[in-house]
Amino acid sequence: MKLVRVIEEFRKEDDCLVKEYLLNISSEKILATLDDLVLNDDDYTDEIYDCYFLSEDQLKKISPFLTEEINPDFDTYIYQLSCYEDNK
């Protein structure tokens, strides 16, 4: 079992998931890159499991770790850092 981290793009008008962008980054590197990310009380500093909404600045900082290019549109979409288990 492997943890997968993604940026999820949700349409603001209906909260529908439009696309996932795969991240190639460890939780430690996420915390170092997003030094202003405040973890939830039940999340761990060595692993990030909860979902976190990203600001434009945060998305810009983490974009170099995406496996494909993203062209963010914060007027139309909301972006969220997510983690899930890949059972492949």
UniProtKB/TrEMBL annotation:
Domain DUF7683: 5-81
A matching Pfam family: DUF7683
Name the record gives this protein: DUF7683 domain-containing protein
Species of the source: Chryseobacterium takakiae
